[in-house]
Amino acid sequence: MNPEENTADLVARFDFAATLARIAEEVRDLVGQGKVAAYIPRLAEVPADRFGMAVATLDGRVFEVGDAATPFSIQSISKVFTLTLALEALGGDLWKRVGREPSGSAFNSLVQLERESGIPRNPLINAGAHVVADVILSSTPTAQADLLEFVRARADNRAIVMDEEVAASERDAGFRNAALANFIRSFRNLDNPVERVLDFYFHQCALQMSCLDLARAFLYLANRGRCQRSGQSVISAERAKRINALMLTCGTYDAAGEFAFRVGLPAKSGVGGGIVAVVPNALTLAVWSPGLDEKGNSLAGAAALDRFTALTGLSIF
Amino acid sequence: MNPEENTADLVARFDFAATLARIAEEVRDLVGQGKVAAYIPRLAEVPADRFGMAVATLDGRVFEVGDAATPFSIQSISKVFTLTLALEALGGDLWKRVGREPSGSAFNSLVQLERESGIPRNPLINAGAHVVADVILSSTPTAQADLLEFVRARADNRAIVMDEEVAASERDAGFRNAALANFIRSFRNLDNPVERVLDFYFHQCALQMSCLDLARAFLYLANRGRCQRSGQSVISAERAKRINALMLTCGTYDAAGEFAFRVGLPAKSGVGGGIVAVVPNALTLAVWSPGLDEKGNSLAGAAALDRFTALTGLSIF
Amino acid sequence: MNPEENTADLVARFDFAATLARIAEEVRDLVGQGKVAAYIPRLAEVPADRFGMAVATLDGRVFEVGDAATPFSIQSISKVFTLTLALEALGGDLWKRVGREPSGSAFNSLVQLERESGIPRNPLINAGAHVVADVILSSTPTAQADLLEFVRARADNRAIVMDEEVAASERDAGFRNAALANFIRSFRNLDNPVERVLDFYFHQCALQMSCLDLARAFLYLANRGRCQRSGQSVISAERAKRINALMLTCGTYDAAGEFAFRVGLPAKSGVGGGIVAVVPNALTLAVWSPGLDEKGNSLAGAAALDRFTALTGLSIF
Amino acid sequence: MNPEENTADLVARFDFAATLARIAEEVRDLVGQGKVAAYIPRLAEVPADRFGMAVATLDGRVFEVGDAATPFSIQSISKVFTLTLALEALGGDLWKRVGREPSGSAFNSLVQLERESGIPRNPLINAGAHVVADVILSSTPTAQADLLEFVRARADNRAIVMDEEVAASERDAGFRNAALANFIRSFRNLDNPVERVLDFYFHQCALQMSCLDLARAFLYLANRGRCQRSGQSVISAERAKRINALMLTCGTYDAAGEFAFRVGLPAKSGVGGGIVAVVPNALTLAVWSPGLDEKGNSLAGAAALDRFTALTGLSIF
């Protein structure tokens, strides 16, 4: 980015269609590499050779390449949506129950939970998402429907669903999550029954969305908390900024430092192979490719984001 | 920040003198609170009631308030300077010897070193700075003089010195650092004698600089790696961006997440009570007040940075 | 113990009745001190001022003092019984699924489980007992009845029961155990459903036995694995010796070193306030007093064992 | 051991010469296996195919097989001698500065030191031995000479020396120990300069003794603290018993549970390949073979001890 040019001008000028096409070409060799998440059958059967990417700008344009319209299991990306809802429900008191520091270890580690008496390090690791889910469950009797409604409104797509088969499989394979939730409960940092918290959590992970859906749905975080269509406030500008900060420091498991270093954008990844990134005041990006690196992030997806910031100069640093 | 306005315009328009005066007023009650670092006599005798702040913009202006011209012990802030030198000396190979992830625990923890076989989590914790010091020592026979020269050039101030009494006291009190360095050496991740590495490290910590010095000295990181006066490259734009990313994720001990969340700027703090922050493509900020919070960051200094981003809207998120 | 005198002679000669009376007198001031386990109502309502102690010798004599005939919740002491059954069921293969080293941390820590991939450090911590329970469940369709039958036979008392109210309360409060079991299951080191393992585990903890019952029931471990009445083998001499070794190194949570140091006998404690100790080739001791020290062992009970070995000279060291 | 027979009778009757010969035969295939400690040249050059074993009984007899008269570097076995001296110097106050619990992790781990604020878990790990060395250094100006005198008197051999070349090599390779000692010093749990503590520690490790020396030198621990020749007290019976308890729970690094389980005797091992074990009220055993297992204990030595207790029935359990 030329410092003499502001971001809005740059976005207006930039040929994102050509950029996405070029990136798809450049990362082609990585697509199909890495390991597709196999702990539940439904995820394991996703073809490894998929790649899609979408960009949505604040001025309403959308660009795409490859499988950008194919819905996939967003998994941990959903933690950004639930964090938004929990912040609206509980306000700053949420931070009494969950921290804001990077975890510095594997995404489902129990160690830090024990050292820190059941206060998860941040809301974007599994343990933190359980607390966030618990907060939402305490604030509304229709938590699951509310979340679905929120996501559909953000993405402007009524066809978005939660995949019940994925949710059921998560439950059957979710011993680690059951361990975490029971552990947090033992420190009295969950108010709702463990089964209910896990059921909600597994359903949020089972949201099926495409890159196009995700790029659109995250635009409020690039737009100081406002809906890019109506201009109405989804969340305060302050909170939008802070969610972006959390994504940057904690959004990609134990590779957050590496992501900030290479990509330089707030981002959230999921084991379904999706990653969403935000360029504040400018645009959102979503990428999907199912093969994961050893830290659980999409291999081709991370490379694509890296190329995007290199080609466009768009980075927060 | 109004999204329709670019940062350069904003900086040109903003009344930083008034902003700094207002901040000094607002944080006045915090000045003198917290604990002054007392592990070495020279630091312990610094009066707790000091507060200074400076802003330096890319267009060459400098603003200040309070004790902004008083030199203090920059301590860990020096890690950004040595990282810059080590990156120039070794290039990307540096990352084989030190990681880029937040440490997720106290800044001088030995635990993670053990788990990760002597590879420090990042170059901005003490262990990482030892490796960085070792790299510099292997690259030049005049490491200490080179560092001093580099810092004087960046700050445009030939009067900057290293306080020998502080360096000697650090050595006498530095059992934790000696433990770290010996531990890293046991994993063969130091090439130079432990005593030499520590001697260099204790001297870098003993650099005496004022807020004005620091704000000027960090401008290359706000300016894509270029000197703001000569326009010459200090470090590549890519590396400048990446050092900023490291400061954001790892620059303030175990409060990096909190800093990103509240302040939203790359920053590096030291136990002398200084903190430097960078607004990419715009300006740098340095603040100093000796009283520390329980995580080792300046109490009034952190509050002042918080107020600065709140008042100006300048944040990377 | 006089080295010229053998243990059998000593036991025959010693006035255990007087010794127990003296001990009860000496520890009187400690009875009622410490904290009664309060995580389930049934345990919390046990009067703190109880103290009982019993000695059973290989030649068939039994001595007692105080509340030695009062049944109490044996809790973790049951782990010795289930270990015996699991060793009979699976033999040495048991040690592929659970270790034999002291845990060096709190009795229900999840940290080591994670570091050691779901292999609990030893069978006398909660995690290890879950694996032991799983082994028994896989070996018999009537695990709970078999355990009860085994304990009744060992103690020669058909009146021994499992307290269903305690078992139900354990389940309702057992989030930490549920976390542990789910965590082990996530490493595939449990074959049976988590709920079934926990149900069996909570029932074994709910066994109600008196000091007299426990002293009698442990005699096979003092008698090289043989029943002291019939002479028939309960377990091989080799295994009896090894269970004793495990009790010494791992039987009293994170105080095993302290117990070996002060008492010098293999012992197993429970949060119900009971402790059983073994003098190989000589006798068993059981003591009960509900007030616990900060490591979860009976305060007056530990002191009573300490006095017993001091007064009699009976120690394995 | 037949329970009707006392230990003294058994020892008097047993043909230890034949037993040792048989054991040497049985473990022959293991001799030369494992890895010889190679971190210092002097240790690395010891031929791997050595095996020696000695038994010393309280009634003054000594039995041997193989290389039982060859001096070797006793390394960590020396910790038992220094613990004895420190207990005499400081009494029970020693336990304010070092714990008595198994460490549950690798013998030179820094993790637990950090968690427990510089109080080593027990005196038989390296960190604990540093504190013990510090206590001795504070109690006498001739610590090294006193230790040598003590060991020569116990072994009744004036020819025992400390190998200066080994001590010097330990110092040159001892980064891990330097890390530990500096770390403990940072918690103010060392009073003497780190260099002095390490110098003494490296010299104690460099004691050269044979199996015959060690078996004789440990007899006071089998004899309730008394010299087997003069009958004079070396240490109180209480302390002798407690040192034995510490050896059982902490004497063989992270294999103490395994040793108690398989061998069932208090024992202390060293990376030089030696292991000494105590049968209280009966005898001592020393074995040496340089090849180590993955936990740092002599491979053939551990097997030989295992066979000894299996063949003789001598075990404390």
Automatic annotation (TrEMBL), chains A, B, C, D:
InterPro entries per UniProt: Beta-lactam/transpept-like, Glutaminase
GO molecular function, a single term: glutaminase activity
Subunit details: Homotetramer.
Keywords from the named record: Acetylation, Hydrolase
Annotated residues for binding of substrate: 76, 126, 170, 177, 201, 253, 271
UniProt-listed Enzyme Commission number(s): 3.5.1.2
Catalytic activities: L-glutamine + H2O = L-glutamate + NH4(+)
Protein name as it appears in the record: Glutaminase
Source organism per UniProt: Dokdonella immobilis
